[in-house]
Amino acid sequence: MFKYLRFLSRFLSDATIPRRGLVLRDFIRMTLIRKLGLAPVGPGTTTFAGLTIHYGDFEMMYGLLKEIFILRIYAFETDKPNPRIIDAGGNIGLATLFFKYQYPGATVITFEPDASNFELLSRNVTDNHLANVELQNFALLDRDGETSFFVQTDIAAGDGGASTIEDYRYEFHKRENIREVRVKCRTLSPFLAEPVDMLKMDIEGSEERVFAEIDDKFGAVAAMNMEYHYIAGTNPLSTILAALERAGHRYHLVNHRREDLTANAKYNALPKTYELIIKSARGQ
């Protein structure tokens, strides 16, 4: 209880958080809806801190709002009134909404390959009258063209685990209700021709292929927040860390709960998949 109250006090007293009273009020409202068993089923529309949010699944949307607006996992420091941000793995657009809420003058380029997610992403950008947001209906990979994409079939939109990697989708999410679709893909390097103040990346296992393609162009990126997905036998972390080091980035690796990922694992039973967060910034 005291830990929770301390968090509330810090959140409400943090002058860098816009409309923090509204954010907290609306998050508490949604939390009560869940606790009372009144969460709507299926697609819907809600309001949050003055934003209109169209979603495909309430639980998925709630979890993302908590991470993005309450825990503020994508907040970063900048002196620029108009930072250039790339949102790789836009889902239904909650991170894009956060970037424009936190940095109103920002230019945001958002990639989302899934058709149902992209429809809600587009509606969320349009209905909130967001300027300087460029939407790209592509998966990011190491080539231009088409690719297989594995999506969950039991939600209308908002699938946060859709991936180009079949083994990861089944092994990590432990689901049978997965189907394969075809989506367009392209490379990230053309978008690094200009400086990028923040690269947010959550692309469910394709990180290494993207970093192999951008190679030394990562030097255009000032800061990055990546959700890295370990997959045994593929998506090696070494390619990503090497790119960060070549670009002079300092970096920090931690899992969602800031715990050792494998502290209690036996050497003959190390996990086949896991996620961790990589935060990096160009050294001073």
Give a verbal description of the structure:
- Helix 2 packs antiparallel against helix 3 (58-70) and helix 7 packs parallel to helix 8.
- Helix 5 links the parallel strand 4 and strand 5.
- The chain has helices at residues 2-13, 20-35, 58-70, 94-102, 115-127, 166-173, 207-214, 237-246; strands spanning 44-48, 51-55, 84-88, 107-111, 133-136, 139-140, 145-152, 178-186, 198-201, 223-231, 249-254, 273-282.
- Helix content is 31%, strand content 25%.
- The strands form three sheets. The chain has a seven-stranded mixed sheet with strand order 5-4-3-9-10-12-11, with helices on both faces. A three-stranded mixed sheet has the order 6-8-7. Strands 1-2 form a two-stranded antiparallel sheet.
- The protein has 284 residues and is an alpha/beta fold.
- The model has no long low-confidence stretch (mean pLDDT 87).
